[in-house]
Specification:
Nucleotidyltransferase, domain 5; six-stranded mixed beta sheet; 6 helices; 16% strand
Length: 296
């Protein structure tokens, strides 16, 4: 559909002091993202909340239920029908790319944004974009956009999300506007926060999460993991961790039901072997010995 705009919304998880850091990007046609925004806004209104964030998924029932409904809506109604993409890029600051003296964490974050934005744009086979990151990011967006707009999009390859064929010529991306937004007023950024938070959490707690989910699955089959915020015998940190395990378990079961290619148990964290799928958990690995993070 010529002339229809495409947009991307993003948020991050993990400070520069954390071992693992993540970026999540929600992308798609403006019309579809507007529909998704309305659905998420209705969920917030129903639970009388202004915002949903992964670090607030603890033991407060409305926030837990809203987070669960955000994930279900995004997967079942949108990504599962190829109406939106959810790309999540996670990296390990202790791998060979990042364990270098003088690493520039902000410049490295900018490069990771470049990687995830170009990947999503190529999957959609779209040149023209508007981009709305969370306003609290430390990224210099003018630098990211400068590199993006010098990048060519190749001849389209077969993809689950290729929408139409184009002329076989190289074209450059055009990120025509970059507008950081306050997550409190933008449910799509809140959705990105949830996915980035889950990805990073699973790199930290994945083995325990899978063990716990397996123990619950034997008891609860064939239902999705159920939330229970009322057990006063469980201490607060344990209750928080278990509710986050349940949220990841819901995501995993929904992706399996819809055959979305997301894997959990093999590596004990979320990853998508085929990055063309509409929910893509991408755990970055150094490409070669010279693949190093930038230094200051």
């Amino acid at each position: 559909m010529k002339g229809e705009g495409f947009a991307a919304y993003s948020d991050e998880s993990g400070t520069f002091q954390c071992r693992y850091q993540s970026i999540a990007l929600i992308s798609g046609r403006d019309t579809m993202l507007s529909e998704l925004r309305k659905r998420l806004g209705s969920i917030l209104s129903e639970h009388r909340l202004a915002e949903v964030k992964f670090n607030e998924v603890k033991s407060h029932s409305p926030k837990i239920k809203a987070a669960s409904e955000f994930v279900q809506c995004a997967i079942k109604e949108f990504a599962g029908h190829k109406k939106a993409r959810i790309d999540v890029l996670t990296w390990d600051t202790q791998d060979s790319r990042h364990t270098i003296q003088g690493r520039d964490d902000i410049a490295n974050l900018e490069r990771m944004y470049y990687k995830i934005l170009t990947h999503a744009a190529r999957q959609w086979n779209q040149i023209d974009w508007s981009f709305h990151p969370d306003k609290n990011s430390q990224v210099h967006w003018d630098e990211v956009v400068k590199f993006l707009n010098r990048t060519s999009i190749d001849i389209p390859r077969p993809s689950l999300l290729t929408l139409f064929e184009t002329e076989g010529t190289d074209r450059s991306f055009h990120f025509q506007s970059v507008e950081p937004l306050d997550s409190a007023g933008e449910p799509l950024i809140q959705l990105a926060d949830l996915f980035a938070g889950m990805a990073r959490f699973m790199r930290e707690e994945g083995e325990e999460c899978v063990q716990w989910l397996d123990s619950q699955r034997k008891r609860d089959q064939p239902r999705l993991p159920q939330f229970d915020c009322s057990d006063d015998e469980i201490d607060e940190p344990t209750k928080t961790k278990q509710n986050r395990f349940r949220l990841v378990g819901q995501l995993n079961e929904l992706c399996k039901r819809l055959k979305l290619g997301v894997s959990l148990r093999g590596r004990k964290y979320l990853w998508t072997p085929n990055p063309c799928y509409p929910i893509n958990f991408w755990n970055y690995e150094p490409q070669h010995e010279y693949d190093k993070a930038p230094v200051s």
